[in-house]
Structure prediction request, 261 residues.
Amino acid sequence: MTGPAISVRGITKSFGELRVLRGVDFEVEHGSIFALLGSNGAGKTTLVRILSTLLTADGGSATIQGFDVATAADQVRESISLTGQFAAVDEVLTGRENLVLVARLRHLPDPGAIADDLLARFSLTDAGSRRAGTYSGGMRRRLDIAMSLIGNPPVIFLDEPTTGLDPQARIEVWQTVKQLAERGTTVLLTTQYLDEAEQLADRIAILHEGTIIQNGTLAELTGLLPQAKVEYVEKRPTLEEVFLALVGPGAGTDTTQKEVA
Prediction:
């Protein structure tokens, strides 16, 4: 498809006297991870709700896969999936039953095969027969994302997907998000965590007080400040490196320590 996967032009939104979005502009390329970075109250969730047709903008325009969110809402909904800040899984059902249920609601053929494929894809096969209420936070979030991918939507919105997760669970979700983009899914990720945007995003837009104040790659954004001249640096391990060293291998990062002089 030609053109961007997501295009946002001059989106505004107010709630009474409160101006939440003051003219937001950005584009997201197909198969990329775009991070919308901002503090609480910056307008991230409001923007996602507008793009997912759950809320109407006061002004401006936006398209998803070429479909206008205001005039072609049905086509937009067929093109997207939305995962909110908290996992929307049924904890009474097993992981597999959650997936089968969503596949049936979407009237897809062979829901069982779809469920088994996604369990394997998200490394949940061994836990598929267990009640989702017994899952760890990271497993519940991975199941939630798997449920949102049923029907193969080309665009997925992840609204602060690692809120409330422990460090190891966050890394599991990061790996899942990277795999989505590798398979061609376009990901718009909202987050207030700087390291999350740094780890995942192809491009990062900083949303502040309802407007995008900077938008670029990590290299472009870090290049906005002059490099510091350092004559001697003794590197100490980060808290993440200490944590992963203590909990054991397989957490998905390199814990090798290096000295810089």
